[in-house]
Amino acid sequence: MNKDFYNLEFDKALDFIADSCYEFCTFKDIDFTALSLKSIKFITCTFDNCNLANCSLQGSIFQDITFRSCKLLGLHFDDANPFGFSCQFLNCQMNHASFYQMQLQNCSFICCNLLGSDFSEVKAQGVSFEGSNLQDVVFERTDLRKANLLATQGLFLDPDQNHIEKAKINRLQLHGLLSKYNIEIHE
Fold first, then answer.
1. Residues in Cβ contact with 15 at an 8 Å cutoff, skipping those fewer than 6 apart
2. What is the pLDDT of residues 109-120, one digit of tens each?
3. How much helix, strand and coil, in percent to the nearest 5, is found in the chain?
4. CA 118 from chain center: how many Å?
5. d(C-alpha 27, C-alpha 105), whole Å
6. How many Å apart are CA 129 and CA 12, to the nearest integer?
7. Which of 13, 45, 53, 101 could disulfide-link 73, Cβ–Cβ 3.0 to 4.6 Å?
8. How far apart are CA 30 and CA 174, in angstroms?
9. Which residues fall within 8 angstroms of residue 31, CB to CB, at 6 or more apart?
10. Are 64 and 43 in contact (CB under 8 A)?
C-alpha cells in the first residue's frame, strides 16, 4: 500500500486491522493515542506530527521508519518485533519510552526529548543522540561505543556500567560521566 493519511482522527474502531501492512505510507497530523497497533507492519513509512502516546506496539514491525515531530510518550518499543527494527527519530517527544535489550544500531535520536526513557542493555553502537535531552535516561549495561552524544542535555551515565569507548561527548558533559566520583570540575 502506497498511501498518504492526513488529519485523520482515529478512534478505537480504527481501520487498522491486526496483521495489516503499510508500505511507503505517510501519516501526518494523526492522533493514534492509546490505540493498539498490535502486529501491524510499517515499512518505509513516515510519521509527521503524529501522536502515538501510549499505543500498544506488541509484535509491530518498524523498518525504515522516520518519526518527525511526533509524540511517542510511554511507548514500549521493546514490545515491537525486533526483526529489522530501524527508526529515525527527529524532534520527537519520547518521555518514558522503553528500548530495553533492543538492537538500535540502525536508529538515531536527533533533538529528541527522552526524559526518563530506558536504554538498559541496549546495543546502540554508533547511534546518534545529538541535541537530545537525556535527563533521567537509564543507561545500564548499554553499548554506546562510537555513539554521538554531542550537544545532549542531562547526560548522566556510569562509565563502569556501560561501554562508551570512542563515544563523542562535549567537554561540558564530563560531569555527567564523573558524577558518581563526586569530583569538582573547573574550567
1. none
2. 999 999 999 999
3. 5, 25, 65
4. 10
5. 24
6. 34
7. 53
8. 40
9. 9, 10, 50, 51
10. yes
Q: What is the pLDDT of residues 114-150, one digit of tens each?
A: 999 999 999 999 999 999 999 999 999 999 999 999 9
Pairing verdict, β 4-6 and 21-23? unpaired
Rounded distance between C-alpha atoms, residue 104 and residue 33, angstroms? 24
- The dihedral formed by the CA atoms of 92, 96, 102 and 104, expressed in degrees to the nearest 10: 20
Give pLDDT tens digits for 161-181: 999 999 999 877 666 665 665
- Provide long-range contacts, Cβ within 8 A and 24+ apart, for 104-107: none
How far apart are the C-alpha atoms of 53 and 73, rounded to whole Å? 5
Sign of CA dihedral 109, 123, 43, 40: negative
The side-by-side arrangement of strands in the sheet containing 108-110 is 4-6, 26-28, 46-48, 65-68, 87-90, 108-110
Q: How far apart are CA 37 and CA 51, in angstroms?
A: 13
pLDDT in tens, 38-53: 999 999 999 999 999 9
pLDDT for 18 beyond 60: no
